[in-house]
Amino acid sequence: MEILSPGTRDDVAVTDAAVRLGGWFSGSDMSSCLPHGARIVVIQPGGDTATATAAGLVDSDTWLFSEHEPPLSCGGAVHVPIAGGLELPGDELIVADDIYIQILDYSSLAYLSVAGPTAVRITCLEDLQAFLADADRAMCSGDWSEQLAHPSVQLADQAALADPGGRPSPQRVYVTAEGQVRTGIGGTDLAHIDAGAEAVAAALDSQETDSSLDAMIPHERLAQAAADRPWLARYLQALETRRRLTRRYGCGIAVSGFGTRFQPGLPKQPAEGAEAPLLLQLARDTYAVRTQDDRLFRLGRDAARLLEVFAVLPEETALPTAVNLLDMTAQQVARIRADLTARLQLAPGGSLETDEAAE
After folding, report:
1. Which of 1-10, 109-118, 345-354 shows the highest mean pLDDT?
2. Phi/psi at 191 (nearest 5 deg)?
3. Mind listing the pLDDT tens digit for each residue in 76-123?
4. CB 98 within 8 A of CB 115
5. Cβ–Cβ under 8 Å, residues 181 and 203
6. Domain ranges, ordered by start, for the chain
7. What is the CA radius of gyration of the chain?
8. Second label for 290, Cα 20 to 30 Å away, from 68, 167, 180, 278?
């Protein structure tokens, strides 16, 4: 078992722990940095680590954030000690005696300065309304919440906000101090660790919709908010991309489909699917971000406009629009589009003029 404790850890190990904990807070898919079937389990300080382990929640592939170490039988599990609190606004979670994470409710973020790592949670209907108001403003005018763009701020439960009807991430487990198993801090109680491994596994596997916020917000309100805003998942993708790029490029990052387009005349509201690359304006340069892995590609202006046209307009309208835009034949446009699609690795291989990893 690897234990990140004072005197045994290094900066890389602590950074790895912070990345995984950030993904756990967001509820995003962490399969790219975890072995198949592995979990990230957070046990509220004061919780019973031994019983949670006996309930089958901790094995050799688990990243475990808890106050107490698991039994040595867990083999290759990575244990990250935590202390403090994470359930209430104003709590502070201490990770590996090295990282101090402030817990804030969404409504308070606009009035507070970010002084370090911060997890922002939706804790009530007022928070949900504030979150949706920020999303609507970004969609209509391109006016983004700059507090959420701070690289030290992590918005929690993004997966449940984007798609409350989807299944929760199988890698994410939370155990309260009382022993209740949930998919998130504000989620409904699914089972008690005393019920044993079989009952806990059945409860987690039976989740057809994401209940990670259901103890805070009625599920039907979350579902209605997402149904009224079919672009909400794309907003959250753009929000996360802007946050990762702010340290390098500052806050002046424009996102196509949110109050602006590179090609005049296109609808300014997002019409792209969730898997379409995000198109960004950073200073004088235009970039595409592949949403599956946050890969950043620099584009020429015409290439960005061509991608934008085909992402927004129906095929029968997009082709003649692109032909007129670039003053090319339909065959030339199709060839350039295919090349861009391949180089963005919507099919494997290639890069554009330069490529970088979004951080």
Report:
1. 109-118
2. -165, 165
3. 788 999 999 999 999 999 999 989 999 999 999 988 888 899 999 999
4. no
5. yes
6. 2-228, 250-357
7. 22
8. 167
